[in-house]
Model the fold of this input.
Amino acid sequence: MDEQELYSLAARLREGTLETSEFVARIKALPFQDLGDVKIDTHRRLRKGFSEIVYCPGKSDEQLRTIARSLSDSAFNILFSRADRRQFEIVREDIPDAIYHDRARLIGVRREDLPLRDGLTVVTAGSSDVPVAEEAAVTAEYMGCAVIRIYDAGAAGLHRLLAHAETLQASKAIVAVAGMEGALASVIGGLVACPVVAVPTSVGYGANLGGLAPLLTMLNTCASGVAVMNIDNGLGAGYFAARIVRQSR
Amino acid sequence: MDEQELYSLAARLREGTLETSEFVARIKALPFQDLGDVKIDTHRRLRKGFSEIVYCPGKSDEQLRTIARSLSDSAFNILFSRADRRQFEIVREDIPDAIYHDRARLIGVRREDLPLRDGLTVVTAGSSDVPVAEEAAVTAEYMGCAVIRIYDAGAAGLHRLLAHAETLQASKAIVAVAGMEGALASVIGGLVACPVVAVPTSVGYGANLGGLAPLLTMLNTCASGVAVMNIDNGLGAGYFAARIVRQSR
Amino acid sequence: MDEQELYSLAARLREGTLETSEFVARIKALPFQDLGDVKIDTHRRLRKGFSEIVYCPGKSDEQLRTIARSLSDSAFNILFSRADRRQFEIVREDIPDAIYHDRARLIGVRREDLPLRDGLTVVTAGSSDVPVAEEAAVTAEYMGCAVIRIYDAGAAGLHRLLAHAETLQASKAIVAVAGMEGALASVIGGLVACPVVAVPTSVGYGANLGGLAPLLTMLNTCASGVAVMNIDNGLGAGYFAARIVRQSR
Amino acid sequence: MDEQELYSLAARLREGTLETSEFVARIKALPFQDLGDVKIDTHRRLRKGFSEIVYCPGKSDEQLRTIARSLSDSAFNILFSRADRRQFEIVREDIPDAIYHDRARLIGVRREDLPLRDGLTVVTAGSSDVPVAEEAAVTAEYMGCAVIRIYDAGAAGLHRLLAHAETLQASKAIVAVAGMEGALASVIGGLVACPVVAVPTSVGYGANLGGLAPLLTMLNTCASGVAVMNIDNGLGAGYFAARIVRQSR
Amino acid sequence: MDEQELYSLAARLREGTLETSEFVARIKALPFQDLGDVKIDTHRRLRKGFSEIVYCPGKSDEQLRTIARSLSDSAFNILFSRADRRQFEIVREDIPDAIYHDRARLIGVRREDLPLRDGLTVVTAGSSDVPVAEEAAVTAEYMGCAVIRIYDAGAAGLHRLLAHAETLQASKAIVAVAGMEGALASVIGGLVACPVVAVPTSVGYGANLGGLAPLLTMLNTCASGVAVMNIDNGLGAGYFAARIVRQSR
Amino acid sequence: MDEQELYSLAARLREGTLETSEFVARIKALPFQDLGDVKIDTHRRLRKGFSEIVYCPGKSDEQLRTIARSLSDSAFNILFSRADRRQFEIVREDIPDAIYHDRARLIGVRREDLPLRDGLTVVTAGSSDVPVAEEAAVTAEYMGCAVIRIYDAGAAGLHRLLAHAETLQASKAIVAVAGMEGALASVIGGLVACPVVAVPTSVGYGANLGGLAPLLTMLNTCASGVAVMNIDNGLGAGYFAARIVRQSR
Amino acid sequence: MDEQELYSLAARLREGTLETSEFVARIKALPFQDLGDVKIDTHRRLRKGFSEIVYCPGKSDEQLRTIARSLSDSAFNILFSRADRRQFEIVREDIPDAIYHDRARLIGVRREDLPLRDGLTVVTAGSSDVPVAEEAAVTAEYMGCAVIRIYDAGAAGLHRLLAHAETLQASKAIVAVAGMEGALASVIGGLVACPVVAVPTSVGYGANLGGLAPLLTMLNTCASGVAVMNIDNGLGAGYFAARIVRQSR
Amino acid sequence: MDEQELYSLAARLREGTLETSEFVARIKALPFQDLGDVKIDTHRRLRKGFSEIVYCPGKSDEQLRTIARSLSDSAFNILFSRADRRQFEIVREDIPDAIYHDRARLIGVRREDLPLRDGLTVVTAGSSDVPVAEEAAVTAEYMGCAVIRIYDAGAAGLHRLLAHAETLQASKAIVAVAGMEGALASVIGGLVACPVVAVPTSVGYGANLGGLAPLLTMLNTCASGVAVMNIDNGLGAGYFAARIVRQSR
Done:
């Protein structure tokens, strides 16, 4: 794309239909225009097989409507994250095939027929961690992954987790979602060879400090092969794990 | 002791050898003198079978020498905690049978032949947690407990811990010592029925925050039956667990 | 149970009705199935005399209903913690003998006739700490303890506490519940020989930091024999103290 | 002083020996010159009976020498705080009657014969808190107070404190110095009517956080009549309490 | 009171109407009963001229009603702190002469004719700090102080404060109330000789951290003679300052 | 003004119509009256070309009405910050030409025809940061600056920012507004020579900690030429940047 | 291994040379022995192609010597992390082919001829971040990755990073190492499609808070595809990134 | 420079001495080479009149020597910050005219004859803040500013600051350096119209928290026109203030 534009500028310069000074000005500005062009960005996504993701909180209805309209004829999958049902109604006006994933608070638009890649497992410590886990799982699904869910299998009842040891050990990437003390990531990290993406949640009370306790637990894990996302950032974890799975053999 | 004093005062009042006003003044002051009297305190310890413990940091050599001298003919076990070797030399001048427990940084004086109670297990996540664990174990030993040590059995290598599952499940109290992310306490708490005394250590780096990370982990554990001590407080954990073990059937 | 399963597998192997390879596969998986089996867990609880506890926050009505249904014919005591009245109504549909303990926010189901063990005392510093204390007391009661309550006896009015010195000194375990600055645990810890389970509460304002101030106070107590629970964790404290009391002579 | 200057300016203006414009310029600047005059400050101290206090840390030897020289013929008491022995040697060169208070890390110069006021009591929880307590006590002594010291009487051994209940209740101001969990201030605050100045110390380890734990304890005390100083700020506490005592009946 | 009880016990012992063993038991318990008796406490307050203060948050309506009833015929001033208007209505049922101080959130009952003591000044940095300041001022008024209020005189507009320099310098105690960055306490501390009681407020946003910023500012003040209360603790500051003023010459 | 007052006092003193003692008293008080007088302050603002700014939160309706009334005939621009629409209605009663800037939560009154100064650019990382940015931009506009807005140009999509590189490099001051991780300030700081005023916002979740994360990012920036405002303090940033721009060549 | 043991037990049971009860006892214990066996672990590592890593801090010389001896004839690569030169000398006694990587503080032993996988790039913001980056790079090299290093390319000098855009965009995993404000991870995350493993370092001062500032920055990044390691955890990042690269197409 | 390169490429393309494909490749890379070229950067600095600044901590001797050598023939002023004397000796080998500014820990090389701009004032609260202030002042001097220093004029002794009111009010930018509670910035911010750059220092103890207390104070200042630097970041403040002064009228 930008190479073509460069060839065309070069051609016009050679032909003499472009002034040297104008050429220099255009060239100076170009790499930025190039990067700043939304179409180009779409192409990059297409090239990589990943979807457009719109973060909804703090967006005005009007902003959301504008975005929905501009994306309405997208050829690619789209996600709107942390959307409430009212925002879904706004989006649906312009994108009638949008679907609302309630627990994951995601609005999804499926426009691609991505080949399904398996190997992504999402685990939670408790049942209260499920919304964050669903955000991860649904995100990964829109990015072309088949997701296995193992929910409510926290470290304090080890046997619930060990019962799924084989699934865990066969995964290409695992998203481990836990609030409270967040020990789940350490236990899984000790059991498997694949990358573990740990997501602390704000589930808990008292010295949980809104998720800081499991965040610190996960950062300090003595198990190798564990990296950490921001508190409650299921979307980031699903995105990160899906990237790994999609580029895996 | 103080009852005797009370009986004696009552007798003298009855006999008329003590003025009522003087009697009232003595009685008013008595409960405080009573509590403030060091001998009484020694009796209370004897009665409960627990030892005198002297905290060494910040004590001047002179203070330490005074204390050692006053305790030199104790009939009971004594511990000096967080003592360095130089302080041991000072104590030994007046208490020649004092022993220095290097890793535990404890000076111990064994004067009692306490009947050994078993059921106390001390576990560590890593080998760097051993000094804190030894402080717990040696403290409990001076309080009359037989201690089983399971060291370097952290949550990231679960099998090392599970290999000792039977020992853990047969314990009357477990001291779980862990730095890094401190997940050990959650895993043990999920495996056993007896009380688990969790001790976070300052072992780790970065977001470990000098032990705050495992402290928060342990406080937020979703396993029931876990209570927490201050960071690196092996002595407190040994003392607390020994109390439980000694009063257990 | 699992021993029986092992015996049966062994019998079938001996009889030749089980292939060696199949036997090996079954055995390999067994310890996890074993641990993961809910029935086994119930047996473990029966064996130890402790109840099932369901944590209610974040549970959907549907999840709660499923759990209530599965527990409706339990032979053992059950607790649902941090339940609101609406959740109680849901549980009561399937468990008509469920009782709502308002201040403790506990739903209790009494199905066992546990022999009462005494020696457990619950103390609060102020009257605002009572809900957390009640959570501890009721939990311990469902676990077969007779509980003595001493409420509103904080460190700033020492005499209110000292008036109960004998009760405190006769206890086998004490739960000390305090918000504000949490000095109660230190004062009790200095008076008694039995284990003290300290629970900081979020009662207070300003630099109380949602309970962090009394939490730090309790962790740093210079009194020995004090271990600490998470902020507002009355249930954990009641459970921990009841474990001690039940295994005490 | 400045009134005289004003009268003189007014006189010169009236006489015509001062230009109106010059007069206006002088008047505009005057209140600042007034406040900025060091002599005035000395007068204020003399008037209030309080001493000059020089904070030593971070001062170069040269700066210290300059200050010592300028104060060498002071008619009033002087204190140099947080001074080490080497700094004392420098000060002594110019102020031969300077005295080094070792534990308090104070250099004192006694030049006044202040009438002694009693009613100031300094209490510590442990023996490691003594240096901070001494800084408070010696400061108050140089400000004309007779100080009663009650050391090593922490909340975990209540009887040690209660033995001094009468002294405490007869005080006009109490400085309560405590590290670890700092419960001392609450206990004293509940016993006495006079103002209690609480000083947290950095004595402790782990979750003591360099004195933040006792600082929070003291700020959150449920006892009324307690105000708090910065961690280890014995000088500030001695100064504050001495102010109260000196202005008391 | 308790002396009388002691005399009576002694008399009965002498007469032989009290068994020695019973006498000993009574005496042992007495100092605690003595302290625990609410009437005694009332006498202590009467003796010191300070009022009963009931902290309202977290009190149930029933508890509040019980307290109000028991205090309804008090001979002394009473305060109910942090009370809302609904709680006032409950209190007024049993104490018809109760008054609601809206901004201070205090319910006051004036039963004493305390001689007014002057010298107490309450200063605020901004107009949003006024509720906390009023809590301090009204508290001090019920304790018999005449209070001067200087509101909205923060450090960023120094002249507003300096205009009151003479009032400040004539005070016996100053309560300095400030949110935002809390520099007010340092500036006043540098201007006056009397004790300054600093109260940080939670007024502010962002890195104010709910009042932690001015709290730290005030604790670290380089001005001597400043002590600090908990965030928003106007009542504590008024109480503390009133104690100083009432015992001043 | 105050110079005139001084001249007039001097004249009257010279004439003899003012007593010397009265003169001295007036002069002593004057610098404070001078500074404390609102009219004088207005003059100072006029002299510097900056507007009156009224901070609305915590102001009672009555206070706001009083202020609006007193400012209603101001010759200068006025701003009311963090005002809600209801407060705007109150202000408008007395100042009918007041305008409500919705996103900026500012009430503006334009009374001056300030010469427009250009060179001030306001940049945001995301669209949720716009309200804070608008507060900065509108503030600067009322202070006589022409403001260029570049919104939604965060560091994670560098090209969006680089597209405006020339505008940024031609600015005299840049306000960089960012929540989340706040990397925007570092990137801009690396691109331009003019002062960059960084404003962290509370936009984000989890470990964003209400804006502390971007605040720390901005304080630690390795780019030189960046100074930081409090979280969400758009007004302060606009004011600071406008000061720079107005005094620039 | 354990399968063989199971087959042998089954054979003996079938033959009747093993009692059923003994068989059951052995089987019950087996899965734990199985997991606890170090040789098995070695096999797991062999199977996955990853090396043994020994964490050196806190290890006694004796412990280190024991480990070195037991690993001396390993067929696989070995790493000793955070080792100092003295520890290297100890290790070299038993493992003469050990190499000391000075900047990375790693002792490496190369025993395998792993096929080199490329696609791993390590970037640092500054030159002080290099030791942490080297720890990541050398770790990955021992795990069979070819590593490209781009050092000193922080966000404040964007052009230094953009010069390597093509290398970055061709990577399969990027380790981004940054202290100060840590904006590097956001900028790289915005430029590339592959997973970015962000490592905050403790490089910086003041409000850097020992690496907490860049840690928070990285956790809050608005760029997708970034996961975070503990502060200074180069080894963890290298290990995590190498896992991704080795399993990538 | 880069424009010339562009013109030259265009010329060669037109002439046909450059292939179109080669031209496109060169152009694509150019904006990065352009920015990445160190010479260009030097030109940018020359254009803006600001010096090269080398941050010394963490630099190896070799790295420092390489940098010194490459800068030895610079035509512009150079600063090496936070350098110790040993590092100065290394630098001096290659840059004999380098000067060591002891208190500021700066190595300076003066190669330019910048026209002096006045209007920059540096103020400190205490004498311990002087090293940070000197770093600011010397930095600004090397950037062509004449600096007025007002040291030891903290908020607790207001008159010392007010004595310099005229100097402050005549400044174009003020650097306010303060540790302890950092109130200085608020007081100055209330007095002047020019931008105030506040620098918190780590001077203090206890709840100063290594400079966090004055940092928070300064961020929360209620005075407008104050922006804040990182703790102890004198260099950043000097640089920022010098930028303002140099672009001022």
